[in-house]
Write a structure and sequence with these properties.
The protein is of the alpha+beta class. The chain contains 21 helices and 23 strands. GO terms for molecular function: phosphatidyltransferase activity.
């Protein structure tokens, strides 16, 4: 880790570094050679090209094409600026006298050395908890996320952070750069606030042409930060599987992710802060001001206009008001939210994983196996993206053969948002079932009734009966295409650079489609005592490529909740995958009020989709999944 002298963000001078192609400045990259090539290939007017005589046109095009080829080759040598001036900072420690600190102290006093946990299982509760805590912050807010969408919940959280900064709260935001496409102007505007600092993990060099990074620097940009946490005043933290976006908080009509976070207080908070500081100050993380172009003069005016459009949208307000009135929000405000007290360990990958392959003993997965122990009776695994690979498949079969009840819940074909991952998982199903592992695949849970009610209420509010009025809040946008969420591509194939996140490409509240749920929680339980909650999927990407984090909780009460879920709820909401009597083919059992429905062909599959999955299974892409 490189140490740099502390400098004020406001006083930071533009940094100019000479490269093969030109100059790298704190406001972004400038390539004079590429500008010359572009000027040659695209003259100011078409009439200039038309007036050129054929004898002179061919040599000119040859020179331009040669220059373009040279520029492309030299671009491979252009990398991120280094070293980067940054302010070293750590979590604030004298925060016991904050409002949250004073509320936590009497609750923690009877439980020395233990951490308190409250599960956030419902999306609106999870969003309400985040907003309530940010609004209560008095000294600091630290956020670390893989995805932050430009939609209703994403904009509302930015607004809450801005308001906190206006109160004098120090706000540190650490984002993975893969899903920030099209958000440079917004991020630069937020980073310009003197109390907000934004840093980007493993950022892309070519802001407007990221394909160049993928083509020429894939080994680097293929490694992403999948961690997720929010910590307030170093007194309360939220860790789990949720990113920031409508689909994670029940505000998206396209797909609603079924997810799990833990709201924690006590010693676990300091451990999460230590993880955040390690990443924040690591040299794989770059201050946004050294990567993004400087904000335009009217940047904040456009940000405020976007916030105003969200506040003016009845559909968005229905959701926001509902979230504010959840039981979790009310109990946080009243300081009487119940907590379960237990010992806990925060586990995480080193940020060094963002630039090189680590030894297995250095990985989160090794620490997780060590802490979760050797199951004696039960092992329950919930992973939306489940690609066990040969080694984990053998391990799970080994547990099952010695009498451990091994159950796995993942997404069904109908519920998954990443088809290649489902294809990668499906080739291990037969082996797992033959080895005694129980497999369940979540069915999509349709929720049309609540959206019918929302439409009716919105029409009443606007007085426009007979016309669809609920707006697609993913289209709440700025005036330029750089900030238009509809213009930003998202990874729908999921072949690399992350786990999921593509569901948000569907419309948000009120598009008229039926909402379906997709599993996104990552949690593992052993012997009704130990429970892991975090960002880690059981797939090669989480194990080897992305950085991950989570918390292992030693609590029979909390672990029992998961076991009860697997016992009572999962069989009704998931297909049970079983072997047919011949022991070589699969069947899917769907439990319905009128009895069991048995499918001999995978539900939701077509001949074309099955063919595509067969092709994906033989491609050498498992290491990317």
């Amino acid at each position: 880790m490189t140490a740099f002298a502390s400098t004020s963000k406001a006083a930071r001078a533009p940094r100019v570094t000479t490269t093969l192609l030109g100059r790298v400045r704190s406001g972004g990259l400038q390539y004079p050679l590429l500008e010359k090539v572009r000027a040659g290939l695209f003259p100011a007017t078409r009439s200039t090209i038309r007036s050129a005589s054929p004898p002179s046109l061919t040599p000119r095009l040859c020179r331009c094409l040669s220059a373009a080829l040279l520029a492309l080759l030299l671009t491979a040598c252009a990398g991120l600026p280094s070293p980067v001036p940054r302010t070293l900072s750590t979590a604030l420690t004298n925060t016991g006298d904050t409002a949250i600190g004073r509320a936590v102290a009497p609750m923690a006093a009877p439980h020395p050395g233990l951490s308190g946990f409250h599960p956030l299982t419902e999306g609106p509760d999870a969003f309400a908890a985040r907003i309530a805590l940010v609004q209560a912050a008095q000294l600091s807010v630290d956020l670390q996320y893989f995805i932050w969408h430009h939609d209703t919940t994403g904009l509302m959280l930015w607004e809450a952070l801005w308001q906190a900064a206006e109160r004098g709260v120090r706000v540190r935001v650490l984002l993975d750069d893969h899903h920030t496409v099209g958000q440079d102007a917004l991020l630069a505007a937020m980073d310009a606030h003197p109390n907000i600092e934004l840093r980007l993990f493993n950022p892309y060099v070519h802001r407007g042409f990221r394909t160049a990074d993928l083509a020429l620097d894939f080994s680097r940009v293929n490694r992403r930060m999948h961690n997720k946490s929010l910590t307030i005043d170093n007194q309360a933290t939220i860790v789990g599987g949720r990113n920031v976006g409508d689909e994670y908080y029940g505000a998206n009509q396209g797909v609603a992710f079924q997810d799990l976070d833990m709201l924690g207080i006590g010693p676990v908070v300091k451990d999460v802060s230590s993880e955040f500081d390690l990443y924040w100050n690591h040299d794989v993380v770059y201050p946004a001001s050294t990567v993004l172009p400087p904000p335009a003069q009217d940047a904040m005016a456009r940000v405020r206009a976007a916030w105003s459009r969200v506040h003016a949208d009845p559909a968005a307000q229905i959701y926001i008001n509902a979230a504010r009135n959840t039981e979790v929000a009310r109990r946080i405000a009243a300081h009487d939210l119940p907590f379960e007290w237990a010992t806990a360990r925060v586990v995480y990958d080193s940020p060094e994983k963002g630039r090189r392959t680590l030894k297995r003993e250095e990985l989160l997965v090794a620490r997780l196996i060590e802490l979760m122990g050797d199951p004696r009776k039960e092992l329950d695994l919930v992973s939306p993206y489940f690609v066990p690979g040969k080694e984990s498949t053998e391990m799970l079969i080994g547990f099952a053969k010695r009498g451990v009840k091994v159950r796995v819940l993942t997404n069904s074909l109908l519920a998954t948002d990443v088809l290649p991952v489902h294809a990668g998982y499906s080739k291990y199903r037969l082996l797992l079932l033959q080895g005694g592992v129980q497999l369940y695949e979540l069915k999509p849970q349709y929720t049309a009734q609540r959206w019918d009610a929302a439409r009716a209420l919105a029409k009443k509010l606007r007085g426009q009966e007979g016309r669809e009025v609920l707006q697609d809040t993913t289209q709440v946008q700025f005036d330029d295409t750089d900030l238009d969420p509809a213009s930003r591509p998202r990874s729908s194939l999921g072949l690399g650079l992350g786990s999921g996140g593509s569901a948000g490409s569907g419309s948000s509240i009120g598009s008229g489609s039926i909402s379906a749920s997709s599993l996104h929680a990552k949690t593992f339980g052993t012997d009704r005592r130990l429970l892991f909650v975090g960002s880690f999927n059981l797939d090669p990407r989480s194990e080897q490529l992305n950085t991950e984090m989570g918390v292992v909780i030693d609590s029979a009460a909390i672990a029992e909740e998961m076991t009860s879920l697997m016992d009572d709820v999962v069989p009704e909401r998931a297909y049970e995958v079983r072997l047919q009597p011949d022991g070589r083919n699969l069947e899917w059992v769907e439990r319905l009020p009128q009895g069991e429905q048995i499918w001999r062909v995978e539900p939701g599959s077509t001949a074309g989709k099955r063919l595509l999955m067969n092709v994906l299974q033989v491609l050498p892409i498992e290491w990317l999944l």
